[in-house]
């Protein structure tokens, strides 16, 4: 029997899912969560760095996605300073780092699609 079929449902942090795929997609699904994790996989970043790298996401959406990733313990947020402007650093947690092999597989697949059907460009 497949591991994901060993029960009728799965549960994490009090939330019940129909299967482990549903749980995983709740944690990393959507347009931006995986992209944010990708940009943090090589090290910590400030909010301003993320906004530059993810130029097509609004600051509000980025902020909301970062809060959700932090709530799900995939990233950590460290605040330096007591009064504005404070320095805020985001990084992957140990749990978030367990997603790196998946990020690398997605990146590899995306590169393959670009090689076969698209093109890499240097400017907009």
Helix content: 40-55%
Strand fraction equals 15-25%
- Average pLDDT: 93
Question: What is the CA-CA span between the terminal residues?
Answer: 49 Å
Number of discrete helical segments? 6
Radius of gyration: 17 Å
Order of helices and strands: EEHHEHHEEHH
* Side-by-side strand order of the widest sheet: 3-5-4
Count of DSSP strands: 5
Seen as an oligomer or otherwise, the chain set is: single chain
Low-confidence stretches: none
Structural class: alpha+beta
Shape: flat
The largest β sheet comes out as: 3 strands, antiparallel
Would you mind describing this structure in some detail?
This protein is an alpha+beta fold. The protein contains 6 helices and 5 strands, in the order ββααβααββαα. The protein has helices at 20-28, 33-40, 47-53, 59-71, 94-97, 100-117; strands at 10-12, 15-17, 45-46, 75-80, 87-92. The chain is flat. The N and C termini lie far apart (49 Å).
């Amino acid at each position: 029997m497949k591991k994901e079929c060993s029960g009728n449902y799965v549960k994490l942090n009090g939330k019940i899912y129909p299967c482990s795929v549903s749980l995983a997609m709740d944690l990393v699904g959507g347009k931006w969560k995986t992209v944010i994790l990708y940009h943090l996989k090589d090290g910590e970043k400030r909010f301003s760095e993320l906004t530059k790298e993810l130029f097509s996401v609004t600051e509000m959406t980025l902020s909301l996605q970062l809060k959700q990733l932090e709530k799900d313990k995939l990233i950590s947020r460290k605040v330096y300073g007591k009064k504005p402007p404070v320095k805020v650093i985001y990084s992957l947690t140990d749990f978030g780092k367990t997603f790196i092999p998946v990020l690398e597989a997605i990146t590899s697949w995306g590169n393959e699609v670009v090689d076969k059907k698209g093109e890499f460009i240097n400017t907009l």
